[in-house]
TrEMBL record, chain A:
Keywords: Mitochondrion, Ribonucleoprotein, Ribosomal protein, Transit peptide. Residues 81-100, 114-134 are annotated as: Disordered. Its main location: mitochondrion. CDD domains: NUDIX_MRP_L46. This is Large ribosomal subunit protein mL46.
From TrEMBL, chain B:
This is Large ribosomal subunit protein uL5m. It comes from Spathaspora passalidarum (strain NRRL Y-27907 / 11-Y1). Belongs to the universal ribosomal protein uL5 family. It comes from the Eukaryota. One of its GO terms (cellular component) is mitochondrial large ribosomal subunit. One of its GO terms (biological process) is translation.
Length: 279, 287
């Protein structure tokens, strides 16, 4: 009986001497997608089919409303849009008889050429007029940026259609991780998890960064058993500015979910992968 | 003023037009639509989303940028932002009974809700299942000048149709008011209920092209809202010129009319609705 008591006491002592885990705050700083997702080939085909169908079923363009008869605009419009071939009972139409309603052949979609609001200056290559002219032709930028081509992982302008997350490599360490900051233990300096994350971000990334904290509530806790740490995740978005690595940071990257899988320690990634955006 | 119901053999409806019915039917309670009975109108019975229907119109013609942004980015943020620890359902604040101890109380119109004029539905804690989203947008254009000059009603509806890509419903004056020159049943403009693609298209135009260019616009008032998560604001007739559909053809629309825009959300109160709308880029102000 006595021996049993002794063993119990020894177990209790072992527990009481264990150190309390360190509370820390991890910053999940992401850059949201800037452009639309790349649709899959099926989606592309589906949208193309639906779009063509929509154009086919569309109402006839009321040109009499937008180009008033007797105006210069109407003359320009008529020059660009020749009237459709009318039906003639005396003529054979090998490709089918036209069905004209309001000058539109009902069998096909209606294609309209609208007079250009800009002038096509083919000979001139004046750089100033190209960039400043309000009436210039609108050409969308490429979805692939310079950073994509250079494979610059530290650039915020890579993978515009994906959510990117900030990971860092601290000096003297060899592992990639999300920025993590310990909450001060003494009673005077102690502050909220989100405050620790915000102040920590400025410490590692300089003050040229404009961010938005989604909530003061952490979205996840990771039990770091190796370092006896509880890491609370604070979700945040970078809105503008740049991340300028300070002294404590050896390297930093902006990576998407798939790239993080290869870089982060496997156990750590498995624990946090549900927080990361698939898009 | 009480509502007038016109009863016909086929259906019963609230009448906003003047006139009366000489028919006194009370004998059948089954609702019958005449178009269902006529063989020549069989084509109209096919549901509009069926490709064989004459009213079929494909909607999913392109990527929906705004809807994608909501599902990919905003939704998870809103769930975290609106999370409250240990939250309970706050019961609704409905109109109250005066009591049942006297026939006078029994038939009296209900008492106002406690501490408020308007009623409020119950507020449930936000979980993954009930993250607030925009369910619809109502664009309503009431043109009081159309009471004097009836043709203005047509231009008002044309303007709403141009902006929203949807054919508006006709609005009629509801009552007789001499001081406002109101005559019951007069056409006074139009309104549309937007959902899906038309809605996201209209919202993106509003957020990105129209509101930023209105110099006097400071934001939607924080006091706006019906306590149930639906937020309304107005645009004046001068603001209409910033809609790109109208901008290039301003001479075709000489008589512009303002709009009332109601954004309907599934949020259970206005505060959540404001959070949702500001995530979409609508500014809010106290002024």
């Amino acid at each position: 009986m006595r021996s049993v008591w002794v063993t119990r006491a020894s177990i209790a002592r072992a527990y009481s001497t264990q150190v309390q885990p360190v509370i820390s705050s991890t910053l999940l700083l992401s850059r949201n997608p800037i452009i639309t997702q790349e649709p899959s080939s099926f989606e592309k085909q589906f949208y193309k089919y639906q779009n063509e169908l929509w154009r086919r079923l569309m109402w006839t363009f009321p040109s009499w409303f937008f180009f008033k008869p007797g105006t210069v605009a109407e003359q320009k419009y008529r020059k660009l849009n020749k009237p459709a071939t009318p039906d003639n009972p005396n003529i054979e139409f090998p490709r089918g008889r036209p069905e004209l309603r309001h000058n539109r052949d009902r069998r096909f979609k209606q294609t309209i050429s609208v007079p250009k609001s800009y002038e096509d200056k083919k000979g001139e290559t004046n750089a100033a007029s190209e960039t400043d002219d309000l009436a210039r032709k609108i050409v969308p930028n490429s979805r692939i940026t310079e950073a994509d081509l250079k494979k610059d992982l530290a650039s915020l302008e890579r993978k515009l259609s994906r959510t990117l997350y900030l990971i860092i490599k601290e000096k003297g360490s060899n592992t990639w991780k999300f920025p993590n900051f310990n909450v001060p233990t003494n009673a005077e300096e102690v502050s909220g998890l989100h405050v620790v994350a915000e102040e920590g971000l400025y410490k590692i990334g300089g003050e040229k960064i404009n961010y938005f904290n989604v909530s003061n509530t952490p979205c996840h806790v990771f039990n770091n058993l190796q370092e006896n740490k509880k890491e609370y995740f604070i979700k945040s978005h970078i809105l503008s500015g740049i991340f300028e690595p300070q002294e404590s940071v050896a390297e930093f990257n902006w990576l998407s979910k798939e790239e993080l899988k290869d870089v982060l320690p496997a156990e750590y990634y498995q624990d946090v992968s549900h927080l990361l955006n698939n898009v | 003023m009480s509502k007038v119901f016109i009863r016909q053999f086929s259906k019963t409806g609230i009448s906003l037009k003047p006139g009366y019915s000489t028919v006194h039917p009370v004998h059948h309670l089954v609702k019958v639509e005449k178009s269902n009975l006529k063989p020549s109108l069989k084509e109209l019975l096919v549901p509009h989303d069926d490709i064989t229907s004459i009213k079929y119109r494909p909607y999913e013609i392109d990527q929906d940028r705004i809807a994608e942004h909501y599902t990919n980015t905003l939704k998870s943020d809103l769930m975290l932002n609106l999370y409250q620890y240990d939250a309970d359902t706050i019961p609704a604040n409905p109109k109250r009974s005066w009591g049942v101890d006297s026939p006078y109380k029994l038939y009296r119109p209900l008492k106002k809700p406690l501490g408020s004029i308007r009623t409020r539905g119950q507020i449930k804690p936000v979980t993954a299942k009930n993250i607030p989203e925009i369910t619809g947008v109502t664009v309503h254009s009431y043109n009081k000048k159309a009471l004097v000059e009836p043709w203005l009603d047509i231009t008002t509806r044309l303007q709403v149709a141009t902006l929203t890509n949807v054919k508006p419903k006709q609005l009629f004056a509801k009552r007789n008011l001499v001081e406002f020159k109101l005559r019951k049943g007069k056409p006074v403009g139009g309104k549309v209920e937007l959902t899906g693609r038309d809605m996201t298209q209209f919202l993106s135009t509003l957020i990105e092209l129209v509101l930023p260019r209105i110099r006097t616009f400071k934001g939607i008032k924080n006091s706006s809202g019906d306590k149930k998560g639906n937020i309304t604001f107005g645009l004046t007739n001068e603001d209409m010129q910033f809609f790109p559909e109208i901008e290039a053809f301003q001479d075709l629309y000489p008589n512009m009319n303002g709009l009332h825009i109601t954004i309907k959300t599934s949020a259970s109160n206005d505060e959540q609705a404001r959070t949702l709308l500001s995530a979409y880029g609508f500014p809010f102000t106290n002024a």
